[in-house]
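Closing statement on the EPU sub-project.
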Amino acid sequence: MDKFVIQGGGRLTGSVRVSGSKNATLPILAAALLSDGPSVLADAPDLADVSHMADLMSQLGAEVRRDDQGRIHVQVVDESRSHAPYDTVRKMRASICVLGPLLAKRTEARVAMPGGCAIGSRPINLHLRGLKALGAKIELDGGDIVARAKRLRGAEIFLGGPFGSTVLGTANVMTAATLAEGTTVIECAACEPEVADLADYLNAMGARIDGAGTPHLVIEGVERLTGVEHRMIPDRIEAGTFMMAAAITNGEVRLENVRLDHMMAVVDKLRRIGVIVKTDGQAAVVSSSRHLEPADVTTQPYPGFPTDLQAQLTTLLCLADGNSAITEKIYPDRFMHVAELLRMGANIRKEGPTVIVTGAKRLIGAPVMASDLRASAALVLASLVARGTTTVNRVYHIDRGYDRIEHKLAGLGAKIHRSNE
Ligand code: EPU
């Protein structure tokens, strides 16, 4: 199993290009199942979850290949297989994205029910409720969700749950509704930029989706969709992670290919902490002058502060001058990084879905264990500033969602290398 060995203490300086968004690419690849023609997806990040999704698409009768410019070419050549088996789904929960497209295009889908996950309970009841409202018959058979409908029918659907809307649930219901008969209205739709990017892709294919990026979607069903070329939006979570890497190392980093308009809550929070974020067209320059103010932060659905940057921000606040409170409102148990940060000398106390972080003078290198994607990123950030050497074990978690992170960090001057000893 690979690990990162990181020598902390250096400033990160220089320029780094942010990759295309993982969480936009996964549902967009799945949505390619809706069309008969080929699609070309530009700036799709080269990371393990995208490879998993490409494998699943192949199992479902699509030809998928990446060209030397990093574009993914995808085309359905065989519509006879509609089964996403447990072995695939358990490796990547986002496999659930194929449920809506398969059902709408092939009239039947069999997708293994996703199980538990390191960041807490992740039900899919809202996805199923939405698809049922469109007329699907759904049953559970041997751990698989089996969904059937001759032709879906437009409906009015409310997608709010106890923690707000659902990102992939909105993706599933929205994609299914594009080929339904009549009009679908989704209330309390997820407003995340990745959902809007999916809607842009579908509209370019011939779908008629109105309101993307707002909680109110109106979808007029169409008869068919065609393949198109689409460029992924920049990954706002990767961008936020690099911003925090610049801040925690007291560095100065220029990020190319960022959409700060997708990151207002993050930029606002960083500025309040004392991090300097300057914009320059499609680029941002992030620097810090060592002194970090504490902050109170609550994760929320977009446009609030994203849960996918909570662990990284917790690491940053470990070095602030005072007490911070970080409350997780999307996944109340998403604190696996805390115990590992304690091993590095952080001062953190957990109370329910909140952690109280008392800023420490320094962090100290130690062997630590990655538990999930964003927790791993938080540990890498801590390692960059820690005194001495940190070994981050099980980096396959970070490979799932970051495109060559050690190369990008090394390019900014970090002393990081991958080892499989
Ligand atoms: N929820 C329900 N019922 C449902 C679906 C969700 O109660 O049917 C709850 C969840 O338990 C959670 C909240 O609603 O409390 C939001 O979950 P959501 O469905 O929005 O999450 P998701 O769509 O499964 C995506 C991202 C996650 C990100 C969340 C929240 C992808 C592939 N995944 O997951 O990204 O944390 O939205 O923004 O887009 C990551 O990239 O590290 C990651 C985990």
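The pocket of EPU is lined by residues 23, 26, 94, 121-127, 161-163, 166-169, 190, 194, 307-308, 330-331, 373-374, 401 (CB under 6 Å). With this model delivered, the sub-project is considered complete and its resources will be redirected to Aim 3.
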